[in-house]
Amino acid sequence: MDNIALAKKAWSHFTDKKAPRDPSDYQPFFDSLADDVVWKVTCPEETPIFGGERHGKHSVMSLFTDEDPFVIEDNELERTPEFLSNGNRVVMLFAERYSIKKDGTVVASVRNKECAFVMDFREGLISRILLITDLSEWNSVYRPG
Amino acid sequence: MDNIELARRAWGHADKISTDRQIGDYNPLLEAVSEDVVFKYAIQDGTPISGEFRGKRALSDFFTSTVTEVAEDGHVNGPVQFIGDGDRVVMLGTESYKIKKDGDIVASVSGREFAIVMDFQHGLITRILEIKDLSEFIEVYLTGDTGL
Description:
heterodimer; A: alpha+beta; about 30% helix; about 45% strand; globular; B: alpha+beta; 4 helices
Protein backbone atom coordinates (compact mmCIF):
# COMPACT_ATOMS: atom_id res chain seq x y z
CA MET A 1 0.00 0.00 0.00
CA ASP A 2 1.49 3.39 -0.92
CA ASN A 3 1.57 6.29 1.51
CA ILE A 4 -1.47 8.02 -0.01
CA ALA A 5 -3.49 4.85 0.50
CA LEU A 6 -2.16 4.62 4.07
CA ALA A 7 -3.14 8.25 4.70
CA LYS A 8 -6.65 7.66 3.33
CA LYS A 9 -7.05 4.66 5.61
CA ALA A 10 -5.73 6.61 8.61
CA TRP A 11 -8.35 9.33 8.18
CA SER A 12 -11.25 7.01 7.36
CA HIS A 13 -12.93 8.00 10.65
CA PHE A 14 -13.23 11.48 9.14
CA THR A 15 -14.33 10.47 5.65
CA ASP A 16 -16.54 7.49 6.48
CA LYS A 17 -18.03 8.20 9.94
CA LYS A 18 -20.23 11.02 11.15
CA ALA A 19 -19.83 12.83 14.46
CA PRO A 20 -20.12 11.97 17.28
CA ARG A 21 -17.54 9.28 16.64
CA ASP A 22 -16.96 6.27 18.82
CA PRO A 23 -13.39 5.85 20.17
CA SER A 24 -13.13 2.63 18.16
CA ASP A 25 -13.72 4.61 14.94
CA TYR A 26 -10.25 6.11 15.38
CA GLN A 27 -8.48 2.74 15.48
CA PRO A 28 -7.23 2.85 11.86
CA PHE A 29 -5.74 6.28 12.61
CA PHE A 30 -4.10 5.14 15.84
CA ASP A 31 -2.76 2.02 14.10
CA SER A 32 -1.10 4.22 11.48
CA LEU A 33 0.94 6.23 14.01
CA ALA A 34 4.55 5.54 14.91
CA ASP A 35 5.15 5.20 18.65
CA ASP A 36 7.23 8.39 18.59
CA VAL A 37 4.86 10.38 16.36
CA VAL A 38 4.97 14.17 16.66
CA TRP A 39 1.72 16.15 16.31
CA LYS A 40 1.61 19.89 15.79
CA VAL A 41 -1.02 22.46 14.84
CA THR A 42 0.01 25.83 13.43
CA CYS A 43 -1.05 28.25 16.15
CA PRO A 44 0.56 30.32 18.91
CA GLU A 45 2.53 28.16 21.34
CA GLU A 46 0.36 29.15 24.29
CA THR A 47 -2.92 28.14 22.60
CA PRO A 48 -4.81 25.84 25.02
CA ILE A 49 -4.97 22.16 23.96
CA PHE A 50 -3.68 22.71 20.41
CA GLY A 51 -0.57 24.84 21.08
CA GLY A 52 2.91 23.31 21.03
CA GLU A 53 3.90 19.80 20.02
CA ARG A 54 2.55 16.49 21.22
CA HIS A 55 5.05 13.69 21.37
CA GLY A 56 4.12 10.03 21.27
CA LYS A 57 1.18 7.95 20.17
CA HIS A 58 -0.52 8.03 23.56
CA SER A 59 -0.57 11.83 23.64
CA VAL A 60 -2.14 12.02 20.17
CA MET A 61 -4.69 9.34 21.04
CA SER A 62 -5.60 11.27 24.18
CA LEU A 63 -6.30 14.39 22.12
CA PHE A 64 -8.82 12.55 19.94
CA THR A 65 -10.59 10.43 22.55
CA ASP A 66 -10.22 12.30 25.86
CA GLU A 67 -9.85 16.01 25.08
CA ASP A 68 -11.53 16.80 21.75
CA PRO A 69 -15.01 15.57 22.72
CA PHE A 70 -15.21 18.17 25.50
CA VAL A 71 -14.23 21.16 23.38
CA ILE A 72 -15.18 20.32 19.78
CA GLU A 73 -18.38 18.87 18.37
CA ASP A 74 -20.01 18.27 14.99
CA ASN A 75 -16.61 18.10 13.31
CA GLU A 76 -17.35 17.13 9.72
CA LEU A 77 -15.74 17.40 6.32
CA GLU A 78 -17.18 20.02 4.00
CA ARG A 79 -15.34 18.81 0.92
CA THR A 80 -13.91 15.51 -0.20
CA PRO A 81 -10.23 15.50 0.81
CA GLU A 82 -7.52 15.61 -1.80
CA PHE A 83 -4.18 13.86 -1.31
CA LEU A 84 -0.87 14.99 -2.83
CA SER A 85 2.44 13.25 -2.27
CA ASN A 86 6.10 13.30 -3.10
CA GLY A 87 6.88 9.94 -1.53
CA ASN A 88 7.37 10.06 2.21
CA ARG A 89 5.33 13.23 2.62
CA VAL A 90 1.59 13.28 1.99
CA VAL A 91 -0.52 16.45 2.08
CA MET A 92 -4.24 16.10 2.68
CA LEU A 93 -6.23 19.18 1.62
CA PHE A 94 -9.75 19.55 2.91
CA ALA A 95 -12.31 21.92 4.43
CA GLU A 96 -14.10 21.22 7.70
CA ARG A 97 -16.71 22.57 10.04
CA TYR A 98 -16.93 22.29 13.82
CA SER A 99 -18.46 23.88 16.87
CA ILE A 100 -16.33 25.10 19.76
CA LYS A 101 -17.52 24.27 23.27
CA LYS A 102 -16.52 25.93 26.50
CA ASP A 103 -17.76 24.72 29.87
CA GLY A 104 -20.11 22.34 28.08
CA THR A 105 -21.77 24.98 25.93
CA VAL A 106 -21.28 25.68 22.20
CA VAL A 107 -19.88 29.20 21.97
CA ALA A 108 -18.72 29.43 18.34
CA SER A 109 -19.33 27.70 15.03
CA VAL A 110 -16.69 27.44 12.35
CA ARG A 111 -17.65 26.73 8.75
CA ASN A 112 -15.72 25.96 5.59
CA LYS A 113 -12.33 26.09 7.32
CA GLU A 114 -9.54 25.28 4.89
CA CYS A 115 -6.94 22.84 6.23
CA ALA A 116 -3.81 21.00 5.18
CA PHE A 117 -2.59 17.93 7.03
CA VAL A 118 1.08 17.39 6.27
CA MET A 119 2.03 13.81 7.12
CA ASP A 120 5.52 12.36 7.09
CA PHE A 121 5.78 8.59 6.71
CA ARG A 122 8.54 6.29 7.90
CA GLU A 123 8.41 2.59 7.11
CA GLY A 124 4.67 2.67 6.56
CA LEU A 125 3.82 4.64 9.70
CA ILE A 126 3.11 8.33 10.26
CA SER A 127 6.02 9.85 12.15
CA ARG A 128 4.90 13.49 12.05
CA ILE A 129 1.62 15.30 11.50
CA LEU A 130 1.37 19.04 11.00
CA LEU A 131 -2.08 20.60 10.72
CA ILE A 132 -1.91 23.91 8.88
CA THR A 133 -5.10 25.87 9.48
CA ASP A 134 -6.40 29.08 10.98
CA LEU A 135 -7.33 28.64 14.64
CA SER A 136 -8.32 32.26 15.23
CA GLU A 137 -11.88 31.41 16.36
CA TRP A 138 -10.46 28.90 18.82
CA ASN A 139 -8.02 31.48 20.12
CA SER A 140 -10.77 34.06 20.51
CA VAL A 141 -12.62 31.63 22.79
CA TYR A 142 -9.74 30.05 24.67
CA ARG A 143 -6.86 32.53 24.63
CA PRO A 144 -5.20 32.90 28.03
CA GLY A 145 -6.14 35.88 30.13
CA MET B 1 8.51 22.96 -17.62
CA ASP B 2 6.15 21.15 -15.21
CA ASN B 3 3.82 22.92 -12.79
CA ILE B 4 6.10 22.40 -9.78
CA GLU B 5 8.90 24.15 -11.65
CA LEU B 6 6.53 26.96 -12.70
CA ALA B 7 5.43 27.37 -9.06
CA ARG B 8 9.02 27.46 -7.85
CA ARG B 9 9.86 30.19 -10.33
CA ALA B 10 6.71 32.19 -9.46
CA TRP B 11 7.57 32.38 -5.76
CA GLY B 12 11.26 33.22 -6.11
CA HIS B 13 10.63 36.55 -4.35
CA ALA B 14 9.71 34.73 -1.14
CA ASP B 15 13.40 34.34 -0.29
CA LYS B 16 13.76 38.10 0.11
CA ILE B 17 12.65 40.03 3.19
CA SER B 18 9.55 41.93 2.12
CA THR B 19 10.98 45.35 2.97
CA ASP B 20 13.94 44.64 0.67
CA ARG B 21 11.75 43.67 -2.27
CA GLN B 22 11.39 45.85 -5.33
CA ILE B 23 8.14 45.91 -7.27
CA GLY B 24 9.93 44.07 -10.07
CA ASP B 25 10.61 41.14 -7.75
CA TYR B 26 6.95 40.17 -8.12
CA ASN B 27 7.17 39.99 -11.92
CA PRO B 28 7.80 36.20 -12.03
CA LEU B 29 4.62 35.67 -9.97
CA LEU B 30 2.59 38.08 -12.09
CA GLU B 31 3.87 36.44 -15.27
CA ALA B 32 2.88 33.03 -13.89
CA VAL B 33 -0.78 33.84 -13.20
CA SER B 34 -3.73 33.99 -15.57
CA GLU B 35 -5.53 37.29 -16.25
CA ASP B 36 -8.48 36.11 -14.17
CA VAL B 37 -6.46 34.64 -11.29
CA VAL B 38 -8.21 34.45 -7.91
CA PHE B 39 -6.18 34.93 -4.73
CA LYS B 40 -7.56 34.26 -1.28
CA TYR B 41 -6.39 33.91 2.30
CA ALA B 42 -8.24 31.35 4.41
CA ILE B 43 -9.29 33.99 6.94
CA GLN B 44 -12.48 35.27 8.52
CA ASP B 45 -14.33 38.14 6.85
CA GLY B 46 -13.79 41.72 7.95
CA THR B 47 -10.02 42.29 7.74
CA PRO B 48 -8.01 44.15 5.07
CA ILE B 49 -6.81 40.81 3.65
CA SER B 50 -10.20 39.04 3.72
CA GLY B 51 -12.17 38.09 0.66
CA GLU B 52 -11.08 37.22 -2.85
CA PHE B 53 -8.69 39.31 -4.92
CA ARG B 54 -9.58 38.79 -8.57
CA GLY B 55 -7.40 39.50 -11.53
CA LYS B 56 -3.71 40.10 -12.13
CA ARG B 57 -3.96 43.80 -11.24
CA ALA B 58 -5.68 43.06 -7.91
CA LEU B 59 -3.00 40.51 -7.10
CA SER B 60 -0.25 43.00 -7.88
CA ASP B 61 -1.92 45.69 -5.75
CA PHE B 62 -2.35 43.21 -2.94
CA PHE B 63 1.32 42.38 -2.69
CA THR B 64 2.70 45.85 -3.36
CA SER B 65 0.16 47.89 -1.40
CA THR B 66 -2.28 46.02 0.87
CA VAL B 67 0.32 43.76 2.43
CA THR B 68 2.72 46.62 3.11
CA GLU B 69 0.01 48.42 5.08
CA VAL B 70 -0.68 45.50 7.41
CA ALA B 71 2.65 43.66 7.64
CA GLU B 72 6.37 44.30 7.66
CA ASP B 73 9.58 42.29 7.56
CA GLY B 74 7.79 39.29 6.10
CA HIS B 75 10.14 36.55 5.06
CA VAL B 76 10.30 32.82 4.63
CA ASN B 77 12.40 30.92 7.15
CA GLY B 78 14.50 28.31 5.42
CA PRO B 79 13.68 26.31 2.31
CA VAL B 80 10.21 25.84 0.91
CA GLN B 81 8.88 22.60 -0.53
CA PHE B 82 6.63 22.05 -3.53
CA ILE B 83 4.38 19.00 -3.71
CA GLY B 84 2.04 18.48 -6.59
CA ASP B 85 0.17 16.16 -8.78
CA GLY B 86 -0.83 17.57 -12.11
CA ASP B 87 -2.85 20.77 -11.97
CA ARG B 88 -2.59 21.37 -8.23
CA VAL B 89 0.65 22.26 -6.46
CA VAL B 90 1.15 23.02 -2.76
CA MET B 91 4.01 25.14 -1.47
CA LEU B 92 4.93 24.43 2.16
CA GLY B 93 7.11 26.69 4.25
CA THR B 94 7.60 28.63 7.45
CA GLU B 95 7.53 32.41 7.72
CA SER B 96 7.94 35.31 10.11
CA TYR B 97 6.41 38.78 9.92
CA LYS B 98 5.31 41.76 11.95
CA ILE B 99 1.71 42.99 11.94
CA LYS B 100 1.08 46.70 11.42
CA LYS B 101 -1.97 48.75 12.18
CA ASP B 102 -2.24 52.49 11.52
CA GLY B 103 1.46 52.54 10.71
CA ASP B 104 2.60 50.97 13.97
CA ILE B 105 3.93 47.46 14.57
CA VAL B 106 1.54 45.87 17.05
CA ALA B 107 2.35 42.15 16.96
CA SER B 108 4.99 39.75 15.78
CA VAL B 109 4.69 36.24 14.34
CA SER B 110 7.71 33.97 14.17
CA GLY B 111 8.25 30.59 12.54
CA ARG B 112 4.65 29.98 11.48
CA GLU B 113 3.98 27.24 8.94
CA PHE B 114 1.94 27.98 5.83
CA ALA B 115 0.54 26.18 2.79
CA ILE B 116 -0.08 27.92 -0.51
CA VAL B 117 -2.34 25.89 -2.79
CA MET B 118 -2.09 26.72 -6.49
CA ASP B 119 -4.31 25.55 -9.32
CA PHE B 120 -2.81 25.50 -12.82
CA GLN B 121 -4.49 25.62 -16.18
CA HIS B 122 -2.55 25.63 -19.47
CA GLY B 123 0.67 26.50 -17.66
CA LEU B 124 -0.74 29.46 -15.71
CA ILE B 125 -1.85 29.77 -12.08
CA THR B 126 -5.60 30.37 -11.97
CA ARG B 127 -6.20 30.19 -8.22
CA ILE B 128 -4.06 30.73 -5.13
CA LEU B 129 -5.28 29.84 -1.64
CA GLU B 130 -3.02 30.59 1.32
CA ILE B 131 -3.67 28.59 4.48
CA LYS B 132 -2.07 29.46 7.81
CA ASP B 133 -2.96 30.40 11.34
CA LEU B 134 -3.91 34.07 11.50
CA SER B 135 -4.86 34.28 15.17
CA GLU B 136 -2.68 37.31 15.88
CA PHE B 137 -3.95 39.09 12.77
CA ILE B 138 -7.55 38.51 13.86
CA GLU B 139 -6.70 39.76 17.36
CA VAL B 140 -5.36 42.98 15.90
CA TYR B 141 -7.92 43.63 13.17
CA LEU B 142 -11.17 42.12 14.48
CA THR B 143 -11.13 42.06 18.26
CA GLY B 144 -8.77 45.02 18.73
CA ASP B 145 -6.76 43.06 21.26
CA THR B 146 -3.07 42.22 21.08
CA GLY B 147 -3.08 40.00 24.11
CA LEU B 148 -1.54 36.98 22.44
